């Protein structure tokens, strides 16, 4: 396993990652690039070694999984203050919960994510959850295993054909969800304050405000990032504003919806069901109230965890880090305003 040794100090550009699981294509691409020294450092058990490596690193590939990455290795102001040479950070996913982008910008550090790398997997999982809820797949499986004397009508579900799906966010994942919806014969509406109406229409949805989306949708599906503007966005009032009998789906991020409010909306019968891949705490505790409801289908933030998606994300991260260390502007730059400063810092590494 690579590490910063005396020979690696000879590399003009030094990149590190932690020893959390990562598709091997990442290391293969980085190690094939001349002039870059790769170090894989322990996420746990040897903080002094890891910090020493980060202090001399120019680039850092960081896990996007906030509940898997030890907090001391989050890219925040405290860590940045100890890493004066750091100029490039790559989040290993579409999300970047583990990176304080404003703090990076203030320090002249360019930050990228891997938006689109897992889009197909997450979009597919959205429908896995939706169909499991509407067709009561998990209930049927459990009753076949444990019960007798029930009829097929006891497990009668609902079609999604002809229903309205409302997408909160229509970026790369939401756009794929919209295209799949059309194949199912669903009408698609979307709310995305970052996009104009024409762009939303070009992505396969009719633009609406959030209030209108909640009122009209038979299915509300979240595809927005977690940030200050979306944290707690879908709260008790939002659930109350949804159509009676609607279904709620989230493959976005825990914290965007209020789990307690969702539980009450489901338990009280206002909503028909929910498909949840993301949680405030991941994994959720086994006694989490939502896990006890028969009309909830739950997964462990695995929407983007497929062999194909993990390979795509690892390749994307390695490619963008290599591009930045060559002085080339990467395609998924989260803080474009910092690029002139970061590029000037990178040029000095030659």
From TrEMBL:
Residues 66-335 form the D-isomer specific 2-hydroxyacid dehydrogenase catalytic domain. Keywords: NAD, Oxidoreductase. It comes from the Bacteria. The keyword Thylakoid does not apply. The keyword NAD applies. Residues 128-303 form the D-isomer specific 2-hydroxyacid dehydrogenase NAD-binding domain. SUPFAM superfamilies: Formate/glycerate dehydrogenase catalytic domain-like, NAD(P)-binding Rossmann-fold domains. Gene3D superfamilies: NAD(P)-binding Rossmann-like Domain (3.40.50.720). PROSITE patterns: D_2_HYDROXYACID_DH_2 (PS00670). Belongs to the D-isomer specific 2-hydroxyacid dehydrogenase family. This is D-3-phosphoglycerate dehydrogenase.
